Target: Energy-coupling factor transporter ATPase
Amino acid sequence: MDIFLENISSIHPLNTPFEKKALNRISIHIPSGQFVAIMGAVGSGKTTLIQTMCGLLPPLSGDIKIGSYRLNKKANRNRVWKEVGYLSQFPEHQVMEDTVFNHVAEGLNHLGLTRERLTERVKEILEAVGLCSNRFKDLSPFQVSGGELRRVALAGILAAEPKILILDEPTAGLDGLERLRILSLLKQIHIENKITILYISHRLEEALEYSERIVVVDHGQIVEDFHPSEIRTRFRNLEKIGFVKTPMLRLMDLLEKRLSRNMPRYIYKEEQLVSYLTKLTGRD
Model:
């Protein structure tokens, strides 16, 4: 399902002394099956954008279309919500059942499965997100770690088999290993199920490693929209709004000075840099 936004403007929080223009005439097209990182400073409009995109926040003006459905109609929003999975920055707000099993099973109830098949399907989904069913199914969601709770929340969303997955900072507050696990899982889901994934991230290194498109929001507008391979040509503009170079980008700058040659523009991942240097030195 493609996502189309045309001239979207939004004021948030509406009808309060603190209201401000959160989105300002944004237009964007997300083709079906893309893995998109949405980036920007705190207060730039990222969360408002994704919540507007999936119909949770009505825009002040403009047109939103997901697949063949325009979201200006309530009936269409109800249909779209069956196809879109949304994971907020605070997964504890979305996990309401008393056990992990019941949370995941809630997303399967509409299928009319037998108890035996329901149990099998819950186990399959938990294992898919890296949680051992026997260990976690009977636990309260609030007996697990922060990273595990995100996996539980994600499992509940995946149970409904969404065509679009939208995540608000899925790795916020996690340590390096848990961040790697969550992002590797999302990439695997994207590849295996060919679903559209949009996620908010503050970490440029994550966006470069896992996404195939980076959209940058600043003051309610899209200021950059590019493939990760373009990062070095775009960075001067990104620096103006507070972006800092990753260790790998700084290393590439240093290598250019030391080697007195320009690094190939296709390099934007660590494995690509290692491969290039290996060939350059002639060592296996």
In short: The longest helix spans residues 176-193.
